[in-house]
């Protein structure tokens, strides 16, 4: 198993290590769960057809281009198992489940490593050279990226897709954090003949305990994944809440207002602290680099104040000086900034 964020000790600890919307559940979720209790003596729909239809309608795309999963994590492993690509190029540092999923099916893994000293900037020419050299079957890109928070510029992303297409490769793009950015999914800008877009519902809807996600791709890839998928991996509660929450306009407005305000606030405050470099983020967390401290040392001191952050030592090319901080409600953001100032500055 890979190591992830998440604090499982004292409930009083504010957990800045998980990138979950802190405003909590849409008001419809609780009711949908209660209403679903009477259905748990039946098997859930095997392909989640009703939910899949609701997503198709919401995204204005064809039902056959969608597959549902028990969180985005299931779909990463399912894609790897169904496609079994020989060569996979991963744009690193990034979420470490891609590497594990492809290693488990015997793919050869290549890295296109973005440099922290160069603000993790993506260089399209350098990437094109690497594609020519490696000739991967699949390229994996997380956008916005976990843990860097970076979002590739739309024009560059279309160039990247073109380079991948010209090489007859396929882009596996994880857009699980796209709703926290001001950008639409790439599925609206490019046809999906050589793309799969992965979407977790965990982070934005604050439902990591429910386990639901989906992917959008061409019919061939979706059918292949369906062929390899275990039955009934999505439970009744997960399937029943989705049609209710995706249409909740009030919820979308609330999140959008919070993220725009608090991301600016956190960036300006973190930038003012000495001995810490903050990387600009387009999503709901910040990657930072500590100058003199180890993130683990910092966490020991933070825990005394009931706070916990993610130390990024197990991401490719990062070490324990890199930390990831989730954006929370304003009062929690303020508290963390004050404590960090006292400890680090
Ligand atoms: C980039 C990224 N993709 C996918 C996932 C998995 O999400 P889920 O909870 O839907 O399995 C995570 C979880 O942290 C993530 O960071």
Provide a descriptive summary of the structure in words:
The chain folds into two domains: 14-24 and 249-344, Aspartate Aminotransferase, domain 1; 28-245, 3-Layer(aba) Sandwich (Aspartate Aminotransferase, domain 2). Helix content is 39%, strand content 16%. It has helices at 27-36, 49-59, 71-83, 97-104, 124-134, 154-166, 219-228, 236-245, 249-272, 295-303, 330-344; strands at residues 14-15, 66-69, 87-92, 108-113, 138-142, 170-174, 195-200, 213-216, 276-278, 285-290, 307-308, 310-311, 322-326. Strands 2-8-7-6-5-3-4 form a seven-stranded mixed beta sheet, sandwiched between helices. It has a four-stranded antiparallel beta sheet with strand order 9-10-13-12, with helices on one face. A two-stranded parallel ribbon has the order 1-11. α6 links the parallel β5 and β6. α2 (49-59) runs parallel beside α8. The mean pLDDT is 96. The protein binds pyridoxal-5'-phosphate. Pyridoxal-5'-phosphate binds next to α3.
